[in-house]
Every structure is written in C-alpha cells, then in structure tokens.
Amino acid sequence: MVEQRLLRLLTRALRDYRLIDDGEHVLVALSGGKDSLCLLELLAQRRHIYPPRFQLSAVHVRMENIAYETDTTYLEDFCRRLDVPLHVITTRFETIDSYDESETNDQTSISSLSRKQKTPCFLCSWNRRKQIFNLAQELGCSKIALGHHQDDILHTALMNLTFQGRFGSMPVLLRMKKMPLAIIRPLCLCHEADIQALAEEHQYQPQRKLCPYDNNTHRTNIRTIYNQMEQLNPELRYSLWHALEREQKLIEE
Length: 253
Hints:
Strand order of the largest sheet: 4-2-1-5-7-6-9
Oligomer: single chain
Number of strands: 9
Strand content: 5-15%
Shape: globular
C-alpha cells in the first residue's frame, strides 16, 4: 500500500537524520500542492504512533501581487480533519531596496542577494520564507518542515552541478545560524511517483497556480535529463543519494 510505504520512509528519514526530537513543535509550510498536503497528512499520522511525539501546526502564505487561485476553505477543512491548526498569511513582495540585512537568514544575506538576479520568483520565495520564519518564532516552533521529496533533491543536485559548478543540494536538515530554527525535509526518502499515487488515492485538491513567472525551464530540462540517465542506470537514484551522503551534503549544522 502506497500510504504505508510513504509513512515507513518518512519514519526512517526522521530516525536516520534525526529530524524531529521528542516534544518539539513543527511548523509545516503548506503550499497546497500534493507534496505539502502529503507531508502534513503523514506527519499528522506519525505524531500519534510512537516517539518522537511532537506538536504540529501549518501555515499557508498567499501573495497579493501574484495571481493565485487558492481555496483556503479546502485547506482549512483538510487541516481540521487532521486536527492541525492552520495559519493563513497574506503578504506581498517588494523591491530589494526594502530589505533589512538583520532580517535575513544564514542562506540569504543581503550581500548574496546583491549577487543574484532579483527575479520576481526569487523575491516571492524569499518573502514567503520570511513570513514562515516569523510565524515559527511567534509560535515557539523549533522546526520548519518543507515538502521537498527525493526527486526534488536529486534534480537540484544535478542543476547545481550543471549550472553552478558545485556538488550539493537542498539539505535534509539545515540549522539556521541567526535564529533558533531548523529546516527539515521529512519526505527526503519518498519518491514523487508514490506521492502522486497517494494524492490521486486520497483525492487531493491541489491549489491552482497562475503565476506569470512560473517558467523554470532549467528544472524541466534537468528532469528530462535525469529520466534519460535513469534509463541508462536504474540505480541512478541511489547512486546520487549515496554520493550526497558521502560528501556530507544532506545535513548542514
């Protein structure tokens, strides 16, 4: 059963990478897509099974100046069925001139922002993260859980190698240096195909994105290349994952 397989892999990730300690309060970033819905549902089940036992909350961030069709009623009902409090935040992103260096995290300093292209997509993501960080601290959360699965992490590793000349990816566990928070990715061992199967089985209603800037062709191309590489070596997934583990790229503390 796909749900049991996903729950088993999530439990293994929590144990192997020590993502959640007993008694912690975890905030799930609920975008409304299949991955974050799956993550919240599995964590909601997992907290009642056996240690570590933890408290769970969810946050959904809406951006005023991006055309999204979000059904917060569906998300509220979804969270209510799981007995998870949902916080809905409406915000907007501004120009880079409005940022304060003291508000950045260890991954996004103003100096690094100045070296990046300030695309609307980048600024939107930066502001969403900022709202999530602020709420997590207000609620007393120690962990922020994101819905990236193993395919996301492997594709990102190939993107970084291809376009940035470095070997690394989104870490499974990332501890912030400027605040008492850590980002975790509990679906890191789960395959996207299994998550898609669960979404269809449970009839998730993903939020519809109408973002005019959503044209990340690099990630689409890397996905195609990854699929071709997997045809050459069906064990590609595990080879790349073990390489990330050997080079200690999955945990940043």
